[in-house]
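Just wondering, does anyone understand these C-alpha cells?
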Amino acid sequence: MSKYSVGMPDEKGYFGEYGGQLLPPELVEVMNGINDAYEEVIKTDDFKNEMQELLSDYVGRPSPIYFARRLTKKLAGAKIFFKREDLNHTGAHKINHCLGEALLAKYMGKTKVLAETGAGQHGVALATACALVGIDCEIHMGEIDIAKEHPNVTKMKILGAKLVPVGRGTKTLKDAVDSAFEEYLKDPVNSFYAIGSVVGPHPFPKMVRDFQSIVGKEAKEQFLAKEGKLPDVVMACVGGGSNAIGLFTAFLDDEDVKIIGVEPAGKGLNTDDHAATLTLGTKGAIHGFECYILQDDEGNPLPVYSIASGLDYPGVGPQHSLLKDLKRVEYKTADDKETLDAFMQLSRLEGLIPALESAHAVAYAMKIAPTMSADQSILVNLSGRGDKDADFVADYLNL
C-alpha cells in the first residue's frame, strides 16, 4: 500500500485530521461492528474468491485502457487514454464497491440494504448487487435527480429496489443522504447502509477505497504494458471521490506522475451554483465525518449545484481532504459549459458517450493536453457511460 495510505485511516477512522465517527455512542458501536466484520471477511478465501469471480465473470473486469486517437489528434498535444469503467456491468465504477457491500451485508446477516443515489449509478449498481445476493434494497433519491436521471430510476425499479423520492431541501444528493441515513437509524441492527462513495463515518471511506482500488491496480499494469512507462498525468472527476481514489491509490507513490481531481464549477466559482468543495471549502463536518465542506458561517452545509447529479455534494472524502493538504493531488475544476463541450466532443470524435460526471475530467484533460508535448500522456478515468444523461443533454442543447 502507498505511503500515502499505509496506516490510514487510523483505528479511529482518521486520515490525518479528516474522517472519524461523529456519531452517537450506540452508532459508533454499530459502525465498529461493520468494521470488525469487514476486516474479518476480506481475509477469508471464500470472500476473496467470490469477489474475484464476480468481478471477472459478472462485472467484466479487467476494464480496458483505450487510446483516444482522434481526440488526441485534434488537441495536438499529449496522448489521451481512458480507463474504461463505463464498460462495467451497470455502466460505471460503482459496481466495484456495491458488490463488496452487498456481500458484506449478507455475511453479517442483514435483511435490508439502504442507500442514497444522485445520478442513479450507485442506486442501479446496488440494486443489481442486492438482486444477485438476494437481499432487499431501498434507494433514496432527490426528486430533481429522479426527473433528470429517469433511465436509471426505471432500472432500479426493474431490479426490485424500493425507490424513495426525497422532496426536501434542494431535492438532490445531499438531501437523499439525509433521508437514507434517517431511515437507517430506525433499525441499524437489521439494515446495512451502503454508502455510495468514500465518504461517511469510518469504516466506509476505507472500505469503498479498498473495493475501488482495483481500478488503479489494473490501470497501472495495463498502461505499463501498453506504453512501457507510466502516464505523466492521471485524472478523475471528484464529487465524493470514489472513482478518483480508486484510480489514484496505485499512483500515489509515483512522484513523477501528476495526479489531478476535477470538481464541478457549475455555473461559475464566482456564483453560488457550484460544488467545488476542495477548491473553495473549509474544514467542517457532515454525515458523521470531518472533511472539507462548503458551509455557511454556522457550519451548516451550503446548497450546491452541478449539471452532473453524482457530483453535487457539499462534502468530499476524508482521504481526498488529506491529499489536498499534502499537495500530492491537485484539485481543479470544470464548469457546465466546458463539461457539455467535452461530452459532445468525446461522443462525436470517439463514439464514446460519457457520464456527465466523467465529462468533467475529460474537459480538464482537453484543457491541458494542448499545453503538453506529444510524447506525454494523460490517463483519465472514464468512470461511467452517459446513457442516463443522453436525453437530458439532448434537451438542454436542443439537439
Summary: The longest strand covers residues 258-266.
